[in-house]
Design a protein that fits this description.
The protein has 331 residues and is of the alpha/beta class. Helix content is 43%, strand content 14%. Strand 1, helix 2 and strand 2 form a beta-alpha-beta unit.
């Protein structure tokens, strides 16, 4: 199951339920599932912007999935869509995903990220069809001590800001449902802790590459908040390959259920400044950047993940571009 042809064969004909299918990663995940000939039902609010809506439709996902407009906070609507889909596999990506927005509206963030997760798990608890469930959280779930080494799955969960903390709570809710209800029912459940994903189709505010593109296309200097912050940046297809692999493998072997970090090798983590410099060099046309000196809400400065577990247990490797993963999908 570690190679792409076997993974594609596994998903062919499978009934898959994806929350957040109109989002950045959700659209890409659905695209891969469609190419694997899975039967996909998506559940999400409409795309968050005109650009995101164009991406959702131009990708072909809007035409090929059975999409249901709905909010994960609305249990009745979610349960109805879930029952109609009768899925075997669930990918939970619906979320309020932005740190700065979580400072502006913490109640919404907790409602979506915690109760939205609980609602989905409750649907799975009453399901007779589900065999594998993956909750996508974030690398920011850990209590950040500004360590120089990567966080492991056994480290303390205690995100600082409302977004990170709500995802820590989502992890705890998932763990409780796994132990109390889902594992005894034979449903394999895991959480995937990945973040700082870049790639085409991301139009969110206050994300580094979209901000770079918006500034460069309008002839403005790129403004960045924390040039020295270190993050495990990775291309969107890398974590998606891990999500697909994990959900498939745990369906065949529920003992693989658990928590998994997903990110680049330690030596590939980089500063925001270096990433922006690479962008400016690639963009050309005199693109430049500057640091914002204004007081900003707290964000972690140093963040790395130890991804030894997923590499050892599942044989997954990062740098999937070099290993032919996207090439195989888009050749």
């Amino acid at each position: 199951m570690n190679n792409l042809p076997e993974l594609m064969k596994f998903y062919k004909g499978k009934k898959v339920f994806v929350t957040g299918d109109t989002g950045f990663k959700g659209t890409w995940l659905c695209k891969l599932l469609i190419m694997a000939e899975a039967e996909v039902t998506g559940y999400a609010l409409p795309p968050a912007s005109r650009e995101a809506a164009e991406f959702f439709h131009r990708s072909g996902v809007a035409e090929c999935v059975r999409h249901v407009n709905g909010d994960v906070r609305d249990y009745a609507t979610l349960h109805k869509a879930f029952e109609a889909a009768a899925p075997e596999i669930i990918f939970h990506l619906a979320a309020q995903p932005l740190v700065l927005k979580s400072y502006e509206n913490p109640l919404e963030t907790y409602a979506v990220n915690v109760m939205g997760t609980a609602n989905l798990l409750e649907c799975a608890r009453h399901s007779k069809s589900v065999r594998s469930l993956l909750n996508v959280t974030t690398d920011k779930v850990y209590e950040n001590n500004e360590w120089c080494w990567g966080y492991r799955e056994t480290d303390v969960l205690n995100g600082y800001d409302p977004y990170s903390n709500s995802k820590s709570c989502s992890e705890l809710v998932t763990s409780s449902y796994r132990k109390s209800f889902l594992h005894p029912a034979g449903i394999a459940v895991s959480t995937a802790r990945a973040g700082n994903v870049i790639g085409g189709g991301d139009f969110a505010e206050n994300r580094i590459i979209p901000d770079c593109i918006r500034a460069a296309t309008s002839g403005r200097e790129i403004a960045i908040r924390s040039p020295n912050s270190i993050r495990p940046y990775q291309h969107v297809l890398e974590p998606l390959s891990a999500y697909l692999l994990l959900a498939a493998r745990q369906m065949d072997n529920p003992e693989l259920s658990g928590c998994y970090n997903i990110g680049p090798d330690d030596t590939d983590c980089t500063t925001t400044e270096k990433l922006v410099q690479l962008f400016c060099r690639a963009w050309g046309y005199g693109a430049t950047w500057r640091c914002i000196n204004a007081v900003q809400p707290h964000e972690a400065n140093f963040l790395k993940l130890d991804c030894s577990r997923i590499k050892t247990v599942l044989g997954w490797q990062c740098c999937s571009v070099a290993r032919g993963f996207p090439i195989a999908f888009f050749a």
